[in-house]
Amino acid sequence: QSVCSRIAGAKCPRCWLCLPFCICSRLRHLQARTSKVNVQLAVHYKEYGTSSNTAKLLPLLLNAEEQSDAVENGLFIYPIDCAALDKKLRASPTLLLWPGPDSQPASSYRDWVEKQNGRVNLVVIDGTWTQARAMARGICSSIPRVHVNDAALKSESLFIRRKQTQADRVSSVEAAALALSALGEPSDVAAPMLAALRLQVDSELVQSGFAPVYGSAVVPDAVRAAECGRAPWTPSAATKPTRCACCGSTRASFKSLGRRPLDEAGSHTVRVWRCRACKRVFRGA
Question: Where would I find the DTW domain in this sequence (predicted)?
């Protein structure tokens, strides 16, 4: 399977959400322009096209002019675009956002950024921790590594779609926002990044059949749903029995066993419930 095929058809090629839930038009109202720092995003090829990925918001929000391709707009697929990324990094002073053992607090480079004649690069690597560790090793060791101060990581991550393995870990877009602030970028750069993250989380939740948690108004685009041949996903009704007809247990004792074929052909299915008290099985709607 090619990397590009992951976003073909029913997915938006920019925000990687299903087309009826595309947020690109709303992201245009959350643009931010950095004063000194260009963010270059390196996404592991296994992460590319994933709806829950947050780092893909960076090139859509920061200095987002119309570009001829993703690489020109600061998005590189690792390791496919390694040569193009290396060329980009050699052209300007560069920092790598990576909390390795030899990294320094990003805030310690604030004066260094200010003293540069032109703009500087901040490389954000995106993938699982195992993938990102390998990517960091593959980027020139002479590039200084920086990390976000521990004090900035005390607040809970806004990104609830993936479970963080440690309490002090945040999503890629949150880490980038904190790093930009530490490097001296104004607060009006980080604010739209976090607003965009909330919008993505809510859009993902609605896309999956859940209610939004940050109050974003997410309305599926019926026209785009028709164009891609898929109606917006809606959860099937699963009405739990109110009482067991055999032992009288309440609905809390019922466990769903999923949907099972109603006939040999399998053309119709029905939800099956099991009473935990008496172990009897019942068919539902």
Answer: 8-209
Distances (CA, A) of 274 to 68, 268, 270, 278: 57, 20, 13, 9
Tokens read off for 169: 């870990």
Please report, for residues 98, 116, 150, 277, the alpha-carbon distance to residue 124 in angstroms, rounded to integers and kept in the order given.
8, 20, 18, 53
Which pLDDT tens digit goes with each residue over 222-239? 656 555 555 544 545 567
Q: Which residue has the higher pLDDT, 67 or 141?
A: 141
Residue that the structure tokens 């195992």 belong to: 130
What pTM value is reported for the model?
0.75
Residue 34: pLDDT band (50, 70, 90) is: very high
Token duo for residue 170: 């945040």
Rounded Cα distance between 269 and 234, Å, is 17
Helix (H) or strand (E) holding 202: helix 187-207
The answer to whether 24 and 12 are in contact (CB under 8 A) is: yes
- The CATH class that applies to domain 236-285 reads mainly beta
Q: Strand, coil or helix: what is 194?
A: helix
Position 137 confidence tier, pLDDT thresholds 50, 70, 90: very high
Chain center to CA of 284: 37
| Rounded Cα distance, 184 and 114, in Å | 8
Per-residue pLDDT, 164: 56
What percent of the residues of the chain are helix, what percent strand, and what percent coil, each to the nearest 5?
35, 20, 50
Neighbouring CB atoms inside 10 A of 141's CB total 11
pLDDT digit string (tens) for 147-186? 998 655 667 788 876 665 565 678 999 999 999 999 999 9
> Which value, in Å, is the radius of gyration of the alpha carbons in the chain?
23
Domain boundary assignment for the chain: 4-207, 236-285
